[in-house]
Amino acid sequence: MSFADLGTPPSTHTYPRWNIRLIEVVEAAICKAWEKVRTEFPDLIEREDEDHLTDQLKTELVRQRRMNMPAGFNYLVFGVPVRDAKMPSGSGNSIDTMPDLTIHLANPRLDVEDDKDALFFECKVIAPSKGLNLYDKNGIHRFVSGWYASSMPHAGMIAYIFDPRHACPLNSLTPYFNKKVHGGSQTNGERLLCKSSPTTAMLAPGPMAANIVETIHGRSFSGPSIVTPGDISLRHLWLLPEK
Predict the structure, then answer these.
(1) What is the pLDDT of residues 183-205, one digit of tens each?
(2) Listed residue (16, 10, 61) closest to 34, CA to CA
(3) Strand pairing partners for 234?
(4) Which of 80, 161, 187, 241 is most buried, by the most CB atoms less than 10 A from its CB?
(5) Residue 82: which residues within 8 A CB-CB, separation 6 or more?
(6) pLDDT at residue 150 in the model
(7) pLDDT greater than 80 at residue 12
């Protein structure tokens, strides 16, 4: 089968990363939205339900975008935030992958497919009954396997923290990545193709957030959209239940 049969030749690289300032503006906006959710929707906090928390977070982000709050987060720069927008996986095995939160650029870059030029976030509750295993298997691993953000070199993990043992992503992720996978000699970090130990990327962007931590992962998939996927940088934004 030739490329003519397929329509468009597959890409052999991931797209260029966003300017770090754009990423930091989005993270600051998420923190601002979380403050509103935390203070004005106590029933959602009490339920500790990921879907409802993320939906309200998205609603606040949509409102903030109209108000340029924080400065730089507006309709001139960013598209409307959406929840559970369906995207194809990197391998092409599914057209129904749904990152929890997606924020596109208002004006996608000329050398990037419009629907892929975005920050993709996976959101997870971390509570006594929902620990780092779920954060890993239903979050981090989805980026490593190309399920989400397969064409982008960066993405984000958002955690709603309801367990005081996990108030700092650096202190929680480091031992978790160093822990041996049950019944084997491989560590969680090795399984997740970590290129280095977690590092602090920046100080907390809001009063109800922890310092942001970055992890770098290889990716283990192939498919029609990407032949040789590059590494992906994940920024871990952990939102706290109180100041």
Answers:
(1) 778 999 999 999 999 999 999 99
(2) 61
(3) 155, 215
(4) 161
(5) 58, 101, 102
(6) 84
(7) no
